[in-house]
Amino acid sequence: MTIARPLRHPDTASAHTMTKRGWWLVVCNVLLPGSAQVLAGDRRLGRVGIVATLLLWLAAIAALVISLVTPQTLYTLFTQAASLWVVQLVLIAYAVLWVVLTLDTLRLVRLVKTSASARGWIAAFAVIVLVGITGTAGYASLVAGSARGALGDIFSAGPSQPPVDGRYNIMLLGGDAGPDRDGLRPDSMSVVSIDASTGQAVTIGLPRDLNPVPFPASSPLHALYPDGYGYDDHCDVDVCQLNSIYTEVSLYKSQLYPKAKAEHSDPGIESMRDALEGATGLTIQYYVLIDMQGFADLIDTLGGVDITVSERLPIGGDENLNHVTSWIKPGTQHMSGYTAQWYARSRHGTSDYDRMARQRQLQDAILKQVNPVNVVSKFQGIANAGTQVVKTDIPQSMLGYFVDLGMKTRKLPVKQLELVPPLIEPTSPDYGQIHKLVQQSLAPATPKPTGK
């Protein structure tokens, strides 16, 4: 007698046979969804289940092969809204199909004909696997939907930019829009220059009190400030320095950048791009603006960050340390978002350069917390917080490339160039020297000769 006959036409009077048959069917449904129907039920439904399962396996194998051969292609595929929509749809459809197949399998088992001792175990096994697989597919679909929404909110749909001199230069602004601030003001300014081939990165930090600041001839601000912004205290705000450019243009000169909004930017950001290009001598293709106020929510979502504190800093209080609520003590600490925010913003007893360094330290600590386990388990919160924290004009079409490039960058040491005293004098900068320092920092390391 073939195995198909007792499975399709069992001896229903034998509890032993029906129990054995029941286990066969639920296990077959787990190993190859649809096979239970082919063996004992609706063959057409079974074929649909088997074909869907095989296609899913083939897609997984193809993704694995692509990740090994050309990972950039896979990153690009899964950072596009259309691809994520397809993934979401497929996961929902497969979850629904799995529910239908499992319920139909339990119908075919005929639990009332199995032995009383096995009846509960067969049903429990089928339901547990059903909940596990459909729950996983449902959560994955939710993640895909959240990713699609977050990517669409954060990244632009603009055209990609080619590398300049083999590098991508990205302006990184750390802004603060806290409750005691009138609007957002960039307090931390740097340019991250990345080799387009190797991923070797150099971070160039600029002080907020840099002045005067030159603009490229192509900038609309060059005609207004031919000798540089802040030269001879010439500006339209109370303090003439690098980070005041954002405020001045946002408040009084937004008409100079009429295309900014359409290009996923704003006039203040574009003026800072011009300023940093003039100061460093680099062409800046993209910007990333990080709102330090929103960092608190992101840090709490990630479960906090580990920071090594070098000196005691106050939480709360005024410039005379009145009404300080508590202190951040020296040593390695696991900080909540609230504490980390004060760590980055605190001005008391330290210089602006110290605060710049703390903000970059906090940014680095957050990047270390973004590991696969954290991302998968807390993706919904990260996506929601991310849309409040990050603004950029990096196009969605370039995400796959930059993810792949970032993987290379993580394997290499990041070079640092801090344009602060004593290396330069912010209030009387020598831009010839600054441009030379920048170019020297970008030069690849020369291997040391080995003696024979």
Low-confidence blocks of residues: none
The best one-word shape is: elongated
Lateral arrangement of strands in the main beta sheet: 9-4-1-2-3-10
The CATH architecture assignment of the largest domain turns out to be 3-Layer(aba) Sandwich
Give the count of structural domains.
2
The average pLDDT value, as a whole number, equals 86
Assign the CATH topology of the largest domain.
Answer: Aminopeptidase
Oligomerization state of this entry? single chain
CATH superfamily of the largest domain: LCP protein
Strand elements, count:
10
N→C terminal distance:
81 Å
The CATH C-level class name of the largest domain:
Alpha Beta
Q: Biggest sheet, in brief?
A: 6 strands, mixed
Estimate the helix proportion, in percent.
Answer: 40-55%
Helix segment count?
Answer: 16
Protein name: Cell envelope-related transcriptional attenuator domain-containing protein
InterPro entries: LytR/CpsA/Psr_CW_biosynth, LytR_CpsA_psr
Family: Belongs to the LytR/CpsA/Psr (LCP) family.
Pfam family, one: LytR_cpsA_psr
